[in-house]
Write a structure and sequence with these properties.
Strands 1, 2, 3, 4, 5, 6, 7, 8 and 9 form a 9-stranded mixed β-sheet that branches. The chain contains 13 helices and 15 strands. The chain is of the alpha/beta class and 400 residues long. It has 2 domains: 173 residues, Glycogen Phosphorylase B (Rossmann fold, 3-Layer(aba) Sandwich); 155 residues, Glycogen Phosphorylase B (Rossmann fold, 3-Layer(aba) Sandwich), CATH 3.40.50.2000.
């Protein structure tokens, strides 16, 4: 990065996120890893409460992102105390790291509670989800989001449906749906070596990877597994915010746990069909699943429930089969398993994905940020003519 002279001229980017950097590799990681190639990036997570001393754990990752984990004492769990202490810690972090010219990038509006005093060049809200609809969401989310809309210079949304929901709330809202690292997932098309924990699972295999939470349709999975005991369902991902006992259990459902981003293509390679098993509820109303183009890049046929941002464009372009009931889902999977020649379908998939990349998404976001930053700097700098006039006036007074 030191070879890039522009790197140190760009303002730092300071991100506040409700997600952990090491949880699941998704939109924030894709975007901010690219941002770190052109500027310093600080990814500040929500606090961890423990019995140790109050401190920041700052680690620079291979991609250049500086991940900051705040550690606070157990006794500071009240919101008022946490916000006050966190505000002081942020100030100290900025001082120690020499963060002076910076962009604030928010994934959670709640971070405004301890960052309203900061003076960024610009503020960006990357609204990747409707967080207020998630299980356990703070009752203050709507209020803080309205405040963030008032402060933000740019608002990006994680999908088209979310854009439609937010576009009237701010003058500069842009839709940036989930994109794809095609080369990474295309590896699955040629992989033949099976991961150890998937090798002995028989075929046909139907797979899902992602976070298993209130958005995951556990009931539908149970129905499918019961109806077709000869099909094997491979479920990859961490289970959060739902009771483990609520997950359907049978001999043909295989929960393999969380896997790293680098491991996913090897698992995909061994599936016959990829699944988007999303429930139809408030928490999925505006989602734009990143795994949709990832499944397709791996060359896997996909069946999804009728998530708006999957139906349009993937379903409408016949790239993904859409089904909600167990019967329709079974029928769609059976059709795909019996499809011997996928050449024409795969050609259309590749043509569609050719116009998508996280590199392009970040480049377009970065261009909008540069425009907004230039406009803000122009506002902060006094006009040249006005400066000259004041200097001339002062000179005239001195000569009197």
């Amino acid at each position: 990065m030191s070879a890039n002279n522009n790197y140190y001229q760009q303002p730092d980017l300071v991100c506040f996120s409700h997600l952990r950097w090491d949880f699941v590799y998704q939109r924030p990681q894709h975007l901010l890893s690219r941002a770190a190639g052109e500027r310093r990036v600080f990814f500040i997570e929500e606090p961890v409460f423990d019995r140790g001393a109050m401190h920041f754990d700052l680690q620079e990752r291979e991609n250049g992102v500086r991940v900051v984990v705040p550690h606070l004492p157990e006794g500071l769990r009240s919101e008022i105390a946490t916000d006050a202490v966190f505000r002081d810690m942020i100030n100290r972090l900025f001082g120690e790291q020499g963060i002076r010219q910076y962009v604030l990038w928010y994934y959670t509006p709640l971070a405004l509670a301890f960052t309203q005093h900061l003076s960024p060049l610009i503020t960006v809200y990357d609204c990747m989800d409707e967080l207020s609809a998630f299980k356990g969401a703070s009752p203050h989310l709507h209020l803080y989001e309205q405040r963030l809309f008032e402060r933000a210079d740019l608002v990006f949304t994680g999908g088209q449906s979310l854009y439609e929901a937010k576009r009237m709330q701010h003058k500069s809202v842009y839709a940036f749906p989930s994109s794809i690292d095609r080369a990474h997932f295309a590896q699955a098309r040629a992989m033949t070596i099976e991961p150890d924990d998937q090798r002995d699972i028989s075929h046909p295999r139907l797979g899902f990877f992602g976070v298993i939470d209130e958005r995951f349709d556990t009931y539908l999975l149970g129905q499918l597994a019961k109806a077709r005991p000869d099909w094997q369902f491979v479920i990859i991902g961490p289970v959060v915010k739902i009771d483990l006992e609520s997950l359907p259990r049978s001999r043909n459902i295989h929960y393999l746990g969380a896997k790293s981003y680098s491991e996913l293509p090897a698992y995909l390679a061994g599936w016959q069909v990829a699944l988007l098993l999303f429930a139809r509820n408030a928490s999925t109303r505006f989602i734009s699943p990143t795994k949709t183009p990832e499944y397709l890049a791996a060359g896997k046929p996909v069946v999804s429930t009728s998530i708006t941002d999957v139906v349009d464009p993937y379903g409408q372009k016949s790239l993904v089969r859409i089904a909600d009931s167990a019967g329709d889902f079974l029928h769609a999977v059976e059709d795909l398993l019996s499809m011997n020649d996928r050449t024409e379908w795969l050609a259309r998939v590749d043509e569609f994905l050719a116009h998508m990349s996280w590199d392009d998404t970040w480049a377009r976001m970065s261009a909008l940020m540069e425009q907004a930053t230039a406009a803000r700097r122009l506002q902060l700098s006094p006009p040249i003519n006005a400066t000259r006039t004041k200097t001339q006036a002062a000179g005239s007074i001195n000569r009197v």
